[in-house]
Amino acid sequence: MVFLLRRSQKFLPCVVNFRKVLGSCLVTGRRCQLCHTGQASATESPGREEASYPLYPGHIPTSALQKALLTVGSACMALYDPYRHDMVAVLGETTGYLALQKLRERMRNDPEGQQILQERPRIRLSTLDITGLRALPEGTFGREYVRFLDDNRVSPDTRMPTKFVDDEELAYVVQRYREVHDLMHTLLGMPTNMLGEVAVKWFEAVQTGLPMCILGAVFGPVRLNARKLYILTTDLIPWAVRSGSNASCILNFYYENRWEQTVESLRNEIGILPPPMIGV
Fold first, then answer.
1. Rounded distance, CA 78 to CA 73, Å?
2. In angstroms, rounded to a whole number, what is the distance separating the alpha carbons of residues 120 and 162?
3. Closest to 177 (Cα-Cα) out of 92, 275, 262
4. d(C-alpha 134, C-alpha 139), whole Å
5. Strand, helix or coil for residue 262
6. Is the pLDDT assigned to residue 173 strictly greater than 70?
7. Which of 29, 44, 57, 117 has its CA 20 to 30 A from that of 107?
8. What is the DSSP string of 166-187?
9. What are the pLDDT digits (tens) for 102-156?
10. Residue of 112, 230, 103, 246 lying closest to 177 (CA atoms)
11. Is the pLDDT of residue 17 over 70?
12. What gap in Å lies between CA 253 and CA 99, rounded to an integer?
């Protein structure tokens, strides 16, 4: 692991240069696509024309080659700095198409999941009654979620918007996954330090099958010291894998309607096992 970290540090200048080239490539490619579409002949299929236009606000249409470049660049940066959430987000979008399709099917086949797909709720400061959640009784899901935000000094508004998923509904699925991530921290009882993040990633990897989660679960421990690595491998990973396997699909719960439910009750309903009683 130390070897991988040293290699990643040496590779950083190359990654930075790669990002500059890639950014230029994306801008140029997008302009060329729009220009080409504007000059398209009447014989071209409507589907091909539509593929050159953004499918939702913020969408950036990209070719297979551009997605491959984005995948390599974002993976390198995410491995070097796991707290680069923008790079982690890009990696999740460019590698997660098949996993997102499976997640969407699980949502479509569940009444509550289907309702979420239809109503498209968002978890943001503008949609949350933080004052009301803070006034809820101790132990309720809403109160513990606000406590998590306060203790870790995080905000739901820091989640990156989807850009590179070429399907409007799948773009919402990945956005929903991102916005319930902090809710998973709350239910799993994990902080936002590296040990807590890796434990949550193991749970999410089993739950979602997203390559980005698997990558984070496998390579995240590189930065842990020997004591934390021991805690992770002997206590947290076995618990996270069992919880992920036992739990129902985490995207099939309308969490906005569960704020007054106790954390313990919601854990039991989802199938999340109680977290280990250890210092994380």
1. 9
2. 14
3. 92
4. 11
5. strand
6. yes
7. 57
8. SSHHHHHHHHHHHHTHHHHHHH
9. 999 999 999 999 999 999 999 999 999 999 999 999 999 999 999 999 999 999 9
10. 103
11. no
12. 18
Phi, psi of 275 (to 5 degrees): -70, 155
**Which burial class, exposed, middle or buried, applies to 235 when counting CB atoms under 10 A from its CB (0-12, 13-18, 19+)?**
middle
- Residue found by looking up tokens 């936002």 in the block: 192
Task: Return all residues near 104 (Cβ < 8 A) that are at least 6 apart.
Answer: 117, 169, 170, 173
DSSP state of 140: B
| CA distance linking residue 238 with residue 69, whole number of Å | 34
Give pLDDT tens digits for 97-117. 999 999 999 999 999 999 999
Q: Of 238, 235, 244, 239, which Cα lies nearest the Cα of 279?
A: 235
Helices (H), 128-236: 130-134, 141-152, 168-179, 181-188, 194-208, 211-219, 226-231
pLDDT value of residue 124:
96
Record the tokens describing residue 111, joined without a space.
């009444």
- Give me the percent of the chain exceeding a pLDDT of 90: 74
